[in-house]
Amino acid sequence: MEYEAVIGLEIHAQLLTESKIFCGCSTQFGAEPNENTCPVCTGMPGVLPVLNRRVVELALRTAVALKGEIAPRSVFARKNYFYPDLPKGYQISQFEAPLSLGGYVEIEGDGGTRRVCLTRIHLEEDAGKLVYEGTMEKADAGYVDLNRTGVPLIEIVTEPELRSPEEAAAFLRKLRSILRYLEVCDGNMEQGSLRCDANVSIRPVGSEGLGVRTEMKNMNSFRFVEHALEYEIQRQIATLDDGEKIIQETRLWDTSKNVTMSMRSKEEAHDYRYFPDPDLVPVEIDSTWVEEIRGNLPELPDEKENRFVEAYELPIEDARTLTATAELADYFEKAVARFPQAKKVSNWILTELLRELNRDEREIGGCAVTPEHLSGMLAMIEDGSISGKIGKQVFEEMYRTGKEPQAIVKEKGWVQIQDSSELAGVIDHVLVSHPDEVSKYRAGKEKVFGFFVGQVMKATRGQANPKRVNELLREKLQSDN
Length: 481
Description:
Blueprint: E1 3-14, H1 53-65, E2 69-70, E3 73-74, E4 76-80, E5 90-94, E6 100-101, E7 104-109, E8 112-125, E9 129-134, E10 139-145, E11 152-158, H2 165-182, E12 194-204, E13 214-219, H3 222-241, E14 249-254, E15 259-265, E16 275-276, E17 283-284, H4 287-295, H5 301-312, H6 316-322, H7 326-338, H8 342-360, H9 371-382, H10 388-401, H11 405-412, H12 420-433, H13 435-442, H14 448-459, H15 466-479
Parallel strand pairs: 13-14
Antiparallel strand pairs: 1-11, 1-12, 2-6, 3-17, 4-5, 4-16, 6-8, 7-8, 8-11, 9-10, 12-13, 14-15
Helix pairs in contact: 2-3, 5-6, 7-9, 9-10, 12-14, 12-15, 13-14, 14-15
């Protein structure tokens, strides 16, 4: 039997606030264990939570950008469960009355643009973190770090509309890009500020019903999400083919073994015994606030991509890559403002610059080559001060040292030779040194001309102006004929 996958995602995004959702503790990552805590976020008796307005503002910003329907009244609820990293014995979240319903994200696939609908966006606080000595399965000791407890999150839940691991990864990449454009989440998956749970089931191709689903928790990279879903889909298919039943459960992705492992039976909503939090009043959103936020949204990836295609006449793939992050798009536009040849700027960014950044696993913000440096180097190539070949060497030096292109060229002595008398002397020497090739050229073998150009460039260590070399070579060969 042929099966198809049905995938839904639950994405937790940490909001970029300085303090936690219900107290004034810092959200700084990397602090000493349990340093960023207080009686409120550790659940001491007699304390009361106070909602951080900035948290609501960033959540609204996300919901509006994703075309969600903002609820005029939303309610915080207590989600009850017991785990060592949850000091209160419950998590403050939203259940029956979330902040936003609906919305969508558009992704690109083999069939073109596809809209993935959202179920809801709601606010909640994060739990703490367990740190093990050894592996989780065979730990010598376990420690609780409550720094993360009370850190503000939005949970973005999709409809079960994704049909492949590739689509799931594409959705995550697109959502991360949007969140970073909005400046509501830094999208750092390694630090846990963007985490993904995936629900997956399989069903016979062509059927409408849903199979028994399993949930995979807290995957922190696009690659892990894709690999975990691939494995789990094949595991479920093999289970059904063996005549067994899928068990509804929560599983973890083991990155060392590349397998999913059973963690616990899957809870349903009633297992958490949700009820409205008696210490928090309902959140009422004024429509004027929503419209103010809507009016202040930045240009988002899709809009910027379309503008790059129209304004700069770039191929769609180039524009899509350049607008993947706001920082890269801004870098491109700053370079083009100084060197107004968009395609040339794009080519250098997409080939030379991104190759180096990807190799070093760096973001554009950590790059030593500024837009001004790149545009300055391209201007030097354009006016003939350096050749394209030398330009690549200049770029490598800029990337390594952060120096300006003019300083590098001067320091290395890479200024392009354009003086006709100097080049004529080099050309004479090349022709005298290769009489057989000269005879072949004059006998009609035009391909030999490229050999002469190469020899001149070699003799000048790539510093000769190629255009001037071509002109002088042809003049010389024709005048001596």
